[in-house]
């Protein structure tokens, strides 16, 4: 029986990789409970994107652009899932060296009902099809996150072409470097990213910021109020993101074990802390906590706990969530003004900054002395250095790829819709329909 060592997020990969020879000697076990949990987790990540992220973003734009954002999220997710099967999976997890995989599993060549992917427990495996499906949803939502930064003014075909280029040259190398053990470069350095702080959130946040600069500001930005048209949609979307994120984080454990339970609890606690922290900061600074702020706090907490959820303790999760909730308020206000970019839906202010906060604090709260699951000789200073390296590499890599990709798209199809089309709204001019009857 062909067996594949397709390793996934989490620090336990080191143990797994080291015991690969022993696992080959005995027939691996496939537990039906693990399979059921992972299929459920895959569905939960899909729920995060469609309808969760779509509704969250859709409520934040003006009514004349809501369908365009929903369509972009749906189309980008669908496109990347197909690309994942075509060549994404093999380049991320199909063997290879330090920076990228091979073409050995192009179009899932050699992947069958009998092939298996390793988990974090020696001798326990998953059907490889399950792992392929689960990871496809990670790739899909990462691409979809980016569209919020340049919403309301970009050409639909430009979104699709950029998504192909960015997925190929930014997402796949970062995923391989961080998650493919033992050969991935950042994995070998000891970077901890249990469920995607670097691979998903920092990666997408930086790409969104680059897009906001290169696509340009919306007409009227800074001169007139560009208010969300339906905060109720945004609240529903944030709630669906919270529900789906349990599949994202706890599913990254790959098994229905205590490790999944820890990631589940940490996801619950960090998000609650972030929602309250964001609301508290708003109450102090603005005098009133807003529903939009509470929903944004939920997302900030989810983002920040993602890299840490499997290695920190519950108190560490609360600290990470509370810190991210408080600091990301500045991310969408003060930092946004400093950057002078029209990041329409605050992709960098929440996902980029929240991901950086979470990745760095993972290096702190994984320490056993702070309730984490690190080894007895865990060094906070050393791990902080490794985490900072992984953050820096992700920021630079994603930024460079994004600039080149947007410039290519600009030369091939153009980036921005005509001024008249932007004023009328992308729902009508790009898709020929309207969300609301006048």
Automatic annotation (TrEMBL):
Domain Ammonium transporter AmtB-like: 36-436
Membrane-topology descriptor: Multi-pass membrane protein
Pfam families: Ammonium_transp
Gene3D superfamilies: Ammonium transporter AmtB like domains
This protein's name: Ammonium transporter
Family to which this protein belongs: Belongs to the ammonia transporter channel (TC 1.A.11.2) family.
Keywords: Ammonia transport, Membrane, Signal, Transmembrane, Transmembrane helix, Transport
UniProt source species: Lysobacter niastensis
Ranges that cross the membrane: 35-57, 69-87, 129-151, 158-179, 191-216, 228-248, 260-278, 290-308, 314-335, 347-368, 388-413
Cleaved signal peptide residues: 1-22
Primary site of residence: membrane
Cell location: Cell membrane; Membrane
